[in-house]
Amino acid sequence: MKKKIIIANWKLNSNIKNISIFLKNLQLNISSYLKYNTVIIAPPTIYLERIYKKINNLNIFLGAQDVDIHKQGAFTGETSILMLKDIGVKYVIVGHSERRLFHNENNKLIAKKFGLIKNSYLIPILCIGESEDEKRNNKTEEIIKNQLDIIFEFFGEKAFVNSIIAYEPIWAIGTGLSADPEYVESIHQFIKDYINQYSSNNLEEIIIQYGGSINAKNAKSFLEKSSIDGLLVGSASLDCKEFLEIIKVSNEILCK
Ligand code: PGA
What we know:
EC number: 5.3.1.1
Bound molecules: 2-phosphoglycolic acid
Number of helices: 10
Strand content: 15-25%
Keywords: Cytoplasm, Gluconeogenesis, Glycolysis, Isomerase
Structural class: alpha/beta
Helix content: 40-55%
Shape: globular
GO biological process, one term: glyceraldehyde-3-phosphate biosynthetic process
Order of helices and strands: EHEHEHEHHEHHEHEHEH
Catalytic activity: D-glyceraldehyde 3-phosphate = dihydroxyacetone phosphate
Radius of gyration: 17 Å
Strand order of the largest sheet: 1-2-3-4-5-6-7-8
CATH superfamily: Aldolase class I
Binding site for substrate: 9-11, 174, 213
Number of strands: 8
Largest sheet: 8 strands, parallel, barrel
CATH class: Alpha Beta
Number of domains: 1
């Protein structure tokens, strides 16, 4: 059975004190849940190295929330893929809707970042999904096609091997209104079928997670769907107890 991938996206949250409490709790409780799960923590950049030192021996992976498109040079304030790699990052979130919205990232820039991550042998977590308006106007499939097409255009049919797609409808992020698991299942199927038209990949290799207002209470209804390969968890991942509960739920489903 395919492992589920559970990612904590802390966004611009937490601090040294809270991280230390979180990691102590994690160290004490995580080991029995890792057999069926891959767990990734994506903290703010400034805490990456601190966290790496504590999670490396726990078999939990380090994720970055973004990367610059340049590898080095006069780009004040940015973080390069070489630096992320240097300190133990294995996964990089790219194209999160908050980057698209607040930093004007478009599909082309996101595709470039996606390629940079892959060419550096790290694993991109590509976030895609529609806004509330787009959903209301029945544009979800069109939006997703556009978000995927540019990746295919740049990187060909193997683009989604060794990559993760996170389907995150924008209206479900941070709103407390998670999508309906059946709806998510249908979109995941659409994504798989669409990718399948363009590539000869084994569909089993395509990993698609869901993200948007996941918590310990609703995680089960998503994780029990076979087309949902894991969860990208925002605010609920800041509380170690709640995050562990989500991982535990995943474990229980998979060891049945
Ligand atoms: P949320 O965030 O769980 O707080 O809705 C999810 C995300 O943005 O990845």
